## 1
Amino acid sequence: MNKEKILLSVIVPVYNVKEYVYQCILSICSQTYGNIQIILVDDGSTDGSSFICDAFSEKDHRITVVHKENGGLVSARRAGLEFAVGEYISFVDGDDWIDENGYEKVIASCHGEFPDIIAYGCIEEYPTYKNQKRNSIKAGLYTGENLKQLKGSILMNENFFEWSVLPHLCDKLIRRELLMECMKDIPDTVSLGEDVVCSFPCMIKAASILSLDIMPYHYRQREGSIVKKQIELEKERFREIYKLLKNSFLPIDTLERQLHYYIFFLLCLKGYTKITDNMMLFPFCSVKPGDRVFVYGAGGFGKVVKNYIDHSDTLILCGWTDKRAEEYIRQGVLLDRLETIFAREYDKVVIAILNENICREICDELVGKGIPRQKIDFVCKEQVDCAELPCWLEVK
């Protein structure tokens, strides 16, 4: 297939992102790879985002604008897919952007091989720093036996919890027919793991996957995400994603265990109290009733653990910090400065970060600065291995 003849359909769900959508659309219109179809799906925006979409469409014949009632991300993506005619589909969220030579680099990196899925990396864009995210598998084309082996560990590598392939739809090109087949069974109501329930079934069904070690996509992390309130989701949300993924993963036995890890990962972030009924402080097995606990980590899981201890009748919170404590403090988070961890008295430091490798690095750093190793607990796969998924997950 001639690379200049490949038509790429770029779908942009837009919902109340007036502040960012101009940059997003401009980054797509400015692509050095010109053979693209741009579909802007206004999902019932009320802030003026829809007018920006219409203004762009008047100036660029490649743009189609779809206006619809608000139905959520899955609904918006599906609506865009109905208008897509390209060989490949790409998604760009309305508050993100892509390097102007991004799609040209992706297509050129194929070197004449055009697989079912092309997966690359992204850069998480925070207001004061960037975080590079890559697939943890080796770059290259996966087919045949190599692809079969990859599918056996497609969700998570050997560490809890690190993706083998990033879960986002926005850092992939997917053949249109494959994407349509996998999206048809995803309810519009899905609002937890919307990317995972589509991207991983696509990878399971794919006959070829190309992994690239480039990061042309910029994933904006709005700092509301740092200070926003943590909301526990109802059990039905977890049942829905568990059922969808379990059905998709049935052909591969080894993925049942991977699904086990992923669901615990989700529960830790979005349903923590639903797994702690019979556990003191999951997954920190060494913590005992009456312990004074210092929490390290102010990300999503760190906030969850801190709040849980704060409201516990059996544990005492005696500190909360993070490597980026000063930045969080400037944004209004009531956090202790990092040096506090070396000055206070406590029984345990729990590293509340859902990445085993990062936890080990922090543990080594704390031990190197004088904190006894026996006082530190952190998340690792063995602890999650021993836990049973809640019985309420199984749909009767």
## 2
Amino acid sequence: MLSLSTWSTALVLALGALVAPQDLRPADDTPAPTPYPEPPGIDPIEGETAPETAAIARDAAVVGRLIEEGWSASMTFDARKDEVSLFELTAWGFARGWTSDSAMIVRDDSGREIARSDRDGGTVYQDLLPFVAPRDGAYTLELVATDSGFRYLVVRHASFAPVTAEEVRDAGERNVVHGWLAGKADHRSFRVTAKPGARVVLRAEPTAQRGVRQMRSVRRRVAARGEETGAMAGGMQGRMARTGDDGSFPTLTLEVENAEVRTGDGHALVVTVPESGSLDVTVGMANEGPGGLFDLHVERGVEFAPLTIRVGDEDDDPVPGAVVELWREPSIDRLARVTMDANGRAAAEVPPGDYLVVYGPAEGRRSKLRTRIGA
């Protein structure tokens, strides 16, 4: 038996002067606008040949088909010195279970290869090739079917500023900040402004909606099994088959250097804002797959519901040591994990909303239920 009740109490937020970030570039990057064009169909076309060379403009997309291994498609583009172009590929097979491999290659006007990404994929997969132009000029993106054919969508995201992993960007009071990661060794740091003493919810998600759905599905399965999200992140590559993750999107992680982390883990945290009125938030990735675009969501002014949680057995006797996790839906953020005391009770605080509650022994099979927690 599991019961949850709210305490009637008041939350007092310490207010103070906000400290404006100094000498930081604004984090005003934006991904290419949607909707993107639909990929071609799967039906064969008599006499079909490889696509002709096409231009791909800034913040634009190109679709096509590569029927056989070895076929390629060329997309020309202009770029200014130090301009960032993030080429995002989505590849679809021609039938259920049809897998393929791909390569994205950027060449200069002499045909010399200057950037490349190779991807081993499944029926549907994604890849990202970041390219920073070494000079003003004309370039070509070459997409190659290195093993079997596929249908493709290539998006050129061109509204991102050059940035290094060491740089801190000014997110200010934005509710959503966009960024990208080149791989596991990469990270992005932002300074977020909020009221001193307040609690905020930080959450990092892939920008692509398919990535959002995929990662939420993975977290939902992990929650149902009672597994640690930290272990999930660290061992993601070896667990893709049973969690539904195809490695197309980064398993995002959050770190906050200058504030108390109240609860949460992995991609979502609840933190208390320090007296400086700003948070230094770093987004990274835990898995070994390709990088990708991400959104950092900042929830301010959230009222938290203080809870009393009790776990009892079939006879309503308390269960000391039982673990209860509260995963907020639909984003599947684990915002609380508590262990019952000798009386089978524990306290927690979470934002109001719909929750998947997972409870049971610290090790072994757990039960789950869904509930709505009010303010």
## 3
Amino acid sequence: MVRYIRTGKTVDFTPPEFIAAGTVMMLGELMCIAKLDIPANTLGTLAIEGVFEFPKESGAGTQLGAGTKVYWNLAEGIATGNEVVGVYIGKAVATAGIDDTVVHVKLDQ
């Protein structure tokens, strides 16, 4: 039998060390974002749904159109359209042009 737990927009997490608000984390293959600071060894929540503003590179070839798949480059800490260097995080909800340094992404697990 299946039992309802909650809406599923967040997951509980107790980090072994301090996690700053805005930190992108992977729990296995689950992309999570800390909405608030979480002190070490303290129960907090990580968002797994919502629209978030991610940093992105600017310059030629960096435009992300609305509805484009977006990936998180773990090594560089930026959003990209290049699936080879990143983990899928969702889709852009508005176009981010070549001069933009951020992109708004709807998380999509």
## 4
Amino acid sequence: MKKVILGLMLWVILNQVVKGADNEVSYEQDWQSPEAIIMALYKTISAGSGEERDWTRFRALFFQGAQFTMALPSTQAGGLITSDVEKMIEQTEAYYKDTGFYEIESDQHVIKYNQMANVYSSFEIKKSLTDDKPLMRGLNHFQLLFDGKRWWIVSNTSIVSN
């Protein structure tokens, strides 16, 4: 009986390891180019009311210690808000899980130099894809790093306006 239980536990553990490896492989296309990683970011951050976002996929886009800086229209402290990946996930879930949030790219410009890339990405924010007018518009400035195998998002600075 102990051998059966031990065998079953080993099967469950190995199955989870294989599933984890499968998930990582399924994201591999996300980091093959600067354009691909930015498209994956917009896909993972956007979802309708009550829809689940793939936060595992989102986390896999970012280099360890990646930072977000947002400049918002404000009279206090220059309107700068900074966060890390986990705080960004927490804020997105808190503010937009029940209402929906779509960040839709409208233009992109990529500047590459060796293993670095700067991506300037204009966007609109809508609560629903069917909204006629966006809530806000803005510009993302991404700094990316290529480690010889894949692209990573190192930082993102955004400015938004109404």
